[in-house]
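Protein in question passed on here:
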Amino acid sequence: MTVILLRHGVSTSNTARTLAGRAPGVELTERGTEQAAAVADRLATLPIEHIASSPLLRCQRTVAPLADKLGLEPEHDERLIEVDYGEWTGRPIAELLTEPLWKVVQGHASGAVFPGGEGLAQVQQRAVAAIRDTERRLADKAGRDVLWVACAHGDVIKSILADALGLHLDSFQRIAVEPASVSVVRYSPHGPSVWKFNDTGADLSALSAGTPPPPLPGGEVPGTASADNGNVRHRDSP
């Protein structure tokens, strides 16, 4: 069984440099909408048989063009929803850098619990369970391997990839998952193998901006966001 892990496209929260979490009404930007269309063009030629998605709007908008092309109805899985950041939800990233918990999130993610929200260990447990449960259900129904898509959020996808790679959750910040990126995990009786991660196609322009600081909560690629087009530009750490 093979799952394509798709992160949603650039959102209004990405460009505002805030931590969206589960806040309602976070939409795709014009750039994010373009990315969703491009992802649909890239993936629609594959024999994808199922689409699962976080129920949040930005993920629904991201998978909609692909679902239309494939004639599939996306299944909303609450276990793929964004991290509940609790009191951190909606706050500016620059402000969160000053929080003591910030260092815990970066270096000891398995022990990080967001005030009024959930812990990252809980996130990994529910997200991996969502993938493995869906894998078993599709395999039992089809009686063969099935290629499918799961659309989720940065930290959620990173936690799934860390599990597939056999990494401790404390190392999950070493994984980059950009908006509209594709990661591929193949599950077999012998265990998972990661075929691709953070694949955004032929555009490698982010690599020309120098060495970025560590990933941010939410799976963000660090840097300042260009409000005019939704692109993220790297800068030095503050």
